[in-house]
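Re: that chain you flagged

S.,

Sorry for the slow reply, it's been a week of failed gels. I finally had a moment to sit down with the sequence you sent. For the record, here it is as I used it:
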Amino acid sequence: MAAVEFEHDGDIARITLNSPPQNRLGNALVQGLTAAMMDLAERDDTRALLLCANGPDFSWGGDIRNWKDISHQAFGETIAQGLQLTNMFEDLPFPTIVAVQGQCSGGGFELALRGDIIVASTDARFGHTEATIGAFTLLGGVQRVADRIGRTRALQWAYTAEMVDAADAFDIGLINEVVPPEKLEKASNAWLQKLGSGATRAHAVHKNLLRTWSTAGVKAADALIPKLAEQIHASADLQDNLEDAIEAVVAGEQRPHFVFKGK
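Prediction finished late last night. Pasting the structure tokens below so you have them in one place:
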């Protein structure tokens, strides 16, 4: 049984963590995720990705069973590889959706935070559990919670290792949608289909601008806009729809629903 299931159907991709019940980020799961990310990075026909998990829980985080038996340097190198993997996921140039059920903690939480849209079932629980063994958020979790909802809650959760339920996570803006467990698959697939049929090139620009804003601020993001505007003006997504959009303006009507090619 593969620790990670990866499928690419047309222009839609799905990655499923398949090491229940805890879906811990051990060697097999990390290797499977890395192979999937490498495949996605090398192709240009993906318009949206769904990351989900089999079993009762999304992921309990890292597999700590071999931490005691490796050198400090080897541990640092392992974390560097984990960061490279999660950065690849975060930097994919198309929308990514993460479907979360049950426990989503430690490195599993940090992996989910790298997605663009998080859909959770009502039984989902999120938390930084690293401090309970004297570690910190090794895959960049604390700063990404701060990026989403602010420094105050980010520090509180990292300090206390408290688990936050889906309803509270939604109320403070950490996640995008909460649904009953039996509707999680349908809801996450709805996001996948909606975003996967949208203006893919424009979505990639929005991700780029927000990444730049997160690291360098509003003015740095603004500085990218003229060149990005040139690129988006050349895209089929924009050019193919301009004539009909202009006709709607002239007629004083709402523009029609456009079909995008993702090019």
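What I noticed first: Residues 72-90 form the longest helix (19 residues).

Talk soon,
D.
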